[in-house]
Amino acid sequence: MILPIFPADLERKTGMKSAARFLFKTWPGVKPIMHTQALNLLAKGLGYDSYHHAKKLSSSWTDARPDIDIHSIEWNLSRVLSEEFQASDNPRVFIDLGNLHAYIQTIPLHHLTVFKRFPELLEREHWFRLPPHDEQSPFGRYQHSPVIPLETSWRISENNGSDEPGYASPRD
User: Fold this and answer.
1) What are residue 149's DSSP bridge partners?
2) Residue from 45, 4, 39 nearest 21 by CA
């Protein structure tokens, strides 16, 4: 399933560029990504082969209401982002699927032309802010993150009898 991307969505600070900028600025992965990589990941999540492919097809969409399901788009985005989080050149991570789904719902897809023309396709208010992290929490910046690195020792222990409460060694 491909979500229609129109030429207006490719202009600076609108639609797809806005959503990719959000990915770039809030990327929860251990390694940061470039803006061009965010554009490609978003395009793949929306059903295209790449950002270039989305750009190429943008002028071919009609004004007819597309037959899309936001849940399928979210599922595809979760698959694409999970693959990127677990890419071989990235550190080993655990993916919290609940937090990943919440993160995907924060991506401002409602700025895309197709959702402006047909807001009922979202079925609900789709965009909300990420919750702030608690500086005092042993989880730190990973408190609401869908991606948790496995190489650090931030995990809360299960009363393992250690002298240092609240922490445990990493599990493999």
Assistant:
1) 93
2) 39
Count of alpha carbons within 13 angstroms of residue 119, beta-carbon side: 6
Residues 100-109 have a mean pLDDT of 86
Provide DSSP, 125-160.
----PPPPP-TTSTTGGGSS-SEEESSS--PPP---
Closest C-alpha among 75, 76, 14 to residue 6: 14
Segment 124-144, tens digit of pLDDT: 555 555 555 555 544 445 556
Report how far apart the first and last C-alpha atoms of the chain are (Å, whole number). Answer: 36
What is the distance between the alpha carbons of residues 118 and 121, in angstroms, rounded to a whole number?
Answer: 6
Distances (CA, A) of 167 to 72, 153, 156, 158, 163: 38, 7, 5, 9, 10
State both tokens at 115: 């959702």
